[in-house]
């Protein structure tokens, strides 16, 4: 059943139906949504994803690949880790693995984050397309998370499964549950038999079937697998070094029932597997009686906290006060028997206790190793212990604590996006509950503890949680939500950036970028100036001082010294998450200050790194997104990074379903429409009763046509003039040139009362240009308009190219390249193909090349004179062409003469060579 339309959507639809009847059906089909109130501090406001429809082009093609993944991937796999943690049935689903699996990096201590990313992707997909499949998947996920939270609020309940003789109790891996037996279970026996039916589902070493003891000194245990992978029984009063033990001879099979028994009597111990004695030790003098009073009698849990909890099922557990004979043990395989000290059949199907059939009334209890949440709002895919341990950490160890508040952010963000897309109050309740729980923890901690926590690398990372909490506060208005957001202030970083002091060297990039988006939202909510100042200054510390040509930043996830670009290039540059978060920050800052530099950067990173991070093939199982984009020569992009389910695959799923979110903005007073990006799309501006459609194949087309439809509406149309559009940018309205002079790196304004059918044509000729690495001018990356061009070559050393030999009078270097027929934006130079970075292929590429202009050359004429260089690397030809564009050949020749005279006077060029250079310039033929 489709969700009901909200009042907001109904009003918008009614307005458009009145103004433009042909649009009413489309508008009414839009997704039902809640609204996030725009901040009163914003001078610009965004449109919703549902208000902007992508047309055919590179963005729509990339998005379609991700939508196919969103439709095809089984959401129950993502929910597996939450259901397991809550002790619920996982419905047979297999967790995604990688960062979402217990066997992944750092023991899966980030699991749950990917589900949040996926929820955001689904929410954006639903808002953009209105397809019911996405809403259905959101509801499935929100419903499962609601059930998981409810289960965590109560004592663990039995999860029954088929047993060897009826039913059994299942211990799902990741549930951290065990059976707690009463203290009298061994009865001080001097002889004993323990027997158990088990069905292990995982092969982890040292998982306990039983562990009775005080600590790691005095105990008795039976492990399903020891370090060699076979069962082991041991008893000791002196720790591991004093163990008297029995080791099996073969591993227990997984996902099959096995019967294990141990007898102890007269100094002899025997271990049986499936009724057969597999080990005997005649020097086992210790008995349960020798252990004295023990405090913990556990099934499935070890007294050694580093050992994993047993994963599988228990089909029965019995204890006898004597040593059964071999025949009696063998008989246990064919029928249930009742131990006289304790006997549990585990045939309960509900509740959290297990009856003892021995007659001694030793009722057992199902428990969590971590007891349970400290607050009813807690929701996670792992125990709260991750958050508790962080509070006492003084240094990073992500194998123990890996960014729990980062993971919480992803879940929180996904829930908020689900609510905003579908109006599902359950999602908002889950999000609000999570923040209530966080506030209950963090508000009790001293400020010094919080500052220490947030300053810890990796473990203290909290992603964009402040932004998400501020968004929740905008919806709830609750003071404690805003107070919670401020508890994440990392004062040392905020104060340094507010003072414009660059302290980024050595910091983990993606741990810190989203902090500043949160600070902007805190400014929105509080008006505290240092938050906004810090964010603005930080942005300028990254752009351009730590930015690669494609818009990415970081090397091996960290920042290095300011203005060191060439010196940081490696195989692990440009983490994809960093570009995602820099785009979010740029967008947020632009709402406050319409500095075109923010949108210039947005275009750079979006059209290059973000588009190029997604491979151009379909795959329902994998998002196929890069983690790092190595900028070393001959690098081949890896679209299945690490073990999978990584942060960058998560943000990549989000990026690919919101390409249209910054194409258009509106002034807060409704008086202007900003066109920030040139992309085939249709904007529905309900408040004005108009649509604006961009028809273009940009960036394969060097311009765009905007058509206004609907009722008459007065507003200023502000068209971004990219900083790279240094010549030829033009605007016509209904075929007539618009008044005014476009300035690169600004917005060109057309103010009028728009009428149905008005057409605006924007032309922006592309030029080939280079951008030099800040610390090595000879290392350069090529751009054709907004498009970064990469050389495709398997060489692993920098390729050398010259570009001045056929440069145009306009300064355009493109004539030095040869277009490839039938392949837009593809060129060749000296036999090497250059292609757009945004193409997601597995070709070896060179994002940077070595510029080599050995001789002074103009047009096709080589003077034969060496091209001299200054100490900073600037060559004579660089200085000549820095004066472009030239009105004509005489202007270029005059520029050559001026530069040559200066270089001769400075002793950098001989007079005869200078004369030859001028003569060559005068005789050459040029492209205009």
Brief summary of the model shown:
Helix content is 30%, strand content 21%.
Describe this structure in words.
The protein has 928 residues and is an alpha+beta fold. 30% of the residues lie in helices and 21% in strands. Strands 29, 30, 31, 32, 33, 34, 35, 36 and 37 form a nine-stranded mixed beta sheet that branches. Strands 3, 4, 6, 11, 12, 13, 15 and 16 form an eight-stranded antiparallel beta sheet that branches. α5 (113-129) runs antiparallel to α6 (132-152). It is elongated and about 110 Å long.
List keywords for this structure.
eight-stranded antiparallel beta sheet; alpha+beta; elongated; single chain; about 950 residues; disordered N terminus
Shape: elongated
Report the strand count: 39
Secondary-structure content class: alpha+beta
Helix count from the secondary structure assignment = 23
Poorly predicted parts: 1-31
Overall radius of gyration: 34 Å
CA-CA gap between termini: 62 Å
Q: What share of residues is helical?
A: 25-40%
Largest sheet: 9 strands, mixed
Overall pLDDT level: 95
Strand proportion, as a percent range, falls in 15-25%
Chart the SSEs and their pairings:
Blueprint: H1 7-19, H2 24-28, E1 44-46, E2 52-54, H3 58-72, H4 75-86, H5 113-129, H6 132-152, E3 160-163, E4 166-171, E5 177-180, E6 192-200, E7 208-213, E8 219-223, E9 232-236, E10 244-247, E11 258-265, E12 268-273, E13 276-281, H7 288-291, E14 296-299, E15 312-320, H8 326-331, E16 342-344, E17 353-354, E18 364-368, H9 385-390, H10 404-422, H11 425-442, H12 447-454, H13 465-476, H14 479-486, H15 491-498, H16 509-526, H17 529-542, H18 576-592, H19 596-612, H20 647-655, E19 664-667, E20 672-675, E21 681-685, E22 690-695, E23 703-710, E24 713-721, E25 730-733, E26 736-737, E27 746-754, E28 759-763, E29 768-773, E30 776-784, E31 787-792, E32 800-801, E33 818-819, E34 827-829, E35 832-836, E36 845-846, E37 849-851, E38 855-858, E39 861-866, H21 876-881, H22 889-905, H23 911-923
Parallel strand pairs: 20-24, 32-37
Antiparallel strand pairs: 1-19, 2-21, 3-4, 4-15, 5-14, 5-18, 6-11, 6-15, 7-8, 7-14, 8-9, 9-10, 11-12, 12-13, 15-16, 17-18, 19-20, 21-22, 22-23, 23-28, 24-27, 25-26, 25-28, 29-30, 30-31, 30-37, 31-35, 31-36, 33-34, 34-35, 38-39
Helix pairs in contact: 4-6, 5-6, 5-10, 5-20, 10-11, 10-13, 11-14, 13-14, 13-16, 15-17, 16-17, 16-18, 17-18, 18-19, 22-23
């Amino acid at each position: 059943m489709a969700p009901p339309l909200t009042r907001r959507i109904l009003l918008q639809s009614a307005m458009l139906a009145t103004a433009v009847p042909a649009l009413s059906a489309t508008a009414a089909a839009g997704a039902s949504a809640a609204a996030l109130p725009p901040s009163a501090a914003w001078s610009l406001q965004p449109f919703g994803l549902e208000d902007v429809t992508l047309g055919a082009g590179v963005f729509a093609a990339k998005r379609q690949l991700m939508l196919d993944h969103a439709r095809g991937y089984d959401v129950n796999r993502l929910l597996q880790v939450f259901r397991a943690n809550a002790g619920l049935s996982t419905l047979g689903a297999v967790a995604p693995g990688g960062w979402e699996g217990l066997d992944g990096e750092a023991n899966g201590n980030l699991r749950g984050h990917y589900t949040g990313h996926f929820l955001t992707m689904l929410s954006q997909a639903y808002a953009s397309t209105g397809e019911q499949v996405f809403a259905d998947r959101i509801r499935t996920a929100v419903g499962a998370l609601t059930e998981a939270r409810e289960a965590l609020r109560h004592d663990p309940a039995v999860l029954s499964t088929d047993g060897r003789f009826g039913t059994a109790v299942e211990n799902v891996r990741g549930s951290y549950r065990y059976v707690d037996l009463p203290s009298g279970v061994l009865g001080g026996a001097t002889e004993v038999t323990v027997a158990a039916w088990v069905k292990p589902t995982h092969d982890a070493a040292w998982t306990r079937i039983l562990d009775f003891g005080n600590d790691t000194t005095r105990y008795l245990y039976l492990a399903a697998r020891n370090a060699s992978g076979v069962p082991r029984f041991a008893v000791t009063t002196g720790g591991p070094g004093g163990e008297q033990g029995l080791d099996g001879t073969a591993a227990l099979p997984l996902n099959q029932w096995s019967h294990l028994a141990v007898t102890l009597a007269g100094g002899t111990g025997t271990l049986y597997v499936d009724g057969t004695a597999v080990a005997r030790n005649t020097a086992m003098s210790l008995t349960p009686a020798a252990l004295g009073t023990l405090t913990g009698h556990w099934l499935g849990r070890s007294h050694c906290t580093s050992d994993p909890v047993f994963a599988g099922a228990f089909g029965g557990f019995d204890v006898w006060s004597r040593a059964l004979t071999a025949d009696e043990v063998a008989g246990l395989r064919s029928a249930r028997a009742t131990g006289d000290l304790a006997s549990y059949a585990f045939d309960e199907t509900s509740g959290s206790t297990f009856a003892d059939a021995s007659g001694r009334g030793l009722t057992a209890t199902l428990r969590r190793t971590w007891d349970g949440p400290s607050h009813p709002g807690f929701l996670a895919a792992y125990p709260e212990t991750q958050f508790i341990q962080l509070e006492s950490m003084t240094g990073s160890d992500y194998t123990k604590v890996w960014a729990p508040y980062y993971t919480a952010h992803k879940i929180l963000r996904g829930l908020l996006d689900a609510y905003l897309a579908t109006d599902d109050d359950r999602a908002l309740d889950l999000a609000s509950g999570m923040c209530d729980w966080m506030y209950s923890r963090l508000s009790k901690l001293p400020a010094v503890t919080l500052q220490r926590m947030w300053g810890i690398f990796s473990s203290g990372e909290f992603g964009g949680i402040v932004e998400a909490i501020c968004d929740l506060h905008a919806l709830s208005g609750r003071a404690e939500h805003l107070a919670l957001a401020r508890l994440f202030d990392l004062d040392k970083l905020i104060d340094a950036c507010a003072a414009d002091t660059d302290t980024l060297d050595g910091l983990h990039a993606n741990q810190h970028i989203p902090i500043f988006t949160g600070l902007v939202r805190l400014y929105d909510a509080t008006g505290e100036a240092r938050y906004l100042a810090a964010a603005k200054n930080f942005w300028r510390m990254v752009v351009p001082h730590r930015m690669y040509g494609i818009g990415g930043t970081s090397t091996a996830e960290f920042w290095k010294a300011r203005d060191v670009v060439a010196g940081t290039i490696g195989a692990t540059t440009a983490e994809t998450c960093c570009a995602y978060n820099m785009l979010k920050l740029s967008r947020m800052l632009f709402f406050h200050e319409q500095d075109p530099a923010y949108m210039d950067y947005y275009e750079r990173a979006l059209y290059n790194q973000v588009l190029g991070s997604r491979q151009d093939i379909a795959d329902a199982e994998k998002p196929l997104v890069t983690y790092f984009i190595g900028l070393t020569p001959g690098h081949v992009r890896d679209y299945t990074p690490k073990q999978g389910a990584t942060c960058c695959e998560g943000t990549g799923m989000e990026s690919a379903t919101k390409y249209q979110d910054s194409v258009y903005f509106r002034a807060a007073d409704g008086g202007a429409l900003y066109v920030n990006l040139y992309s085939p799309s249709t904007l529905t501006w309900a408040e004005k009763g108009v649509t604006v459609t961009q028809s273009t194949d940009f960036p394969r087309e060097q311009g765009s046509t905007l058509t206004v439809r609907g009722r008459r509406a007065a507003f200023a149309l502000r068209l971004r003039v990219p900083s790279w559009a240094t010549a030829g940018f033009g605007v016509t309205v209904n075929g007539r040139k618009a008044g005014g002079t476009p300035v690169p790196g600004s917005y060109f304004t057309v103010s009028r009362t728009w009428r149905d059918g008005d057409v605006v044509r924007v032309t922006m000729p592309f030029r080939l240009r280079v951008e030099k690495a800040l610390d090595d001018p000879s290392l350069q990356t090529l751009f054709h308009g907004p498009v970064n061009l990469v050389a495709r070559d398997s060489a692993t050393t920098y390729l050398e190219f010259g570009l001045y030999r056929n440069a145009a009078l306009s300064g355009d270097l493109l004539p030095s390249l040869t277009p490839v027929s039938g392949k837009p934006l593809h060129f060749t130079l000296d036999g090497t193909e250059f292609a757009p970075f945004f193409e997601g292929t597995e070709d070896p590429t060179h994002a940077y090349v070595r510029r080599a202009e050995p001789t002074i050359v103009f047009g096709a004429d080589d003077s034969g004179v060496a091209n001299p260089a200054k100490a900073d690397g600037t060559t004579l030809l660089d200085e000549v062409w820095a004066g472009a564009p030239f009105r004509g050949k005489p202007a270029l020749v005059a520029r050559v003469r001026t530069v040559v005279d200066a270089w001769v006077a400075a002793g950098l060029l001989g007079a005869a060579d200078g004369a030859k250079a001028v003569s060559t310039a005068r005789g050459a033929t040029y492209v205009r």
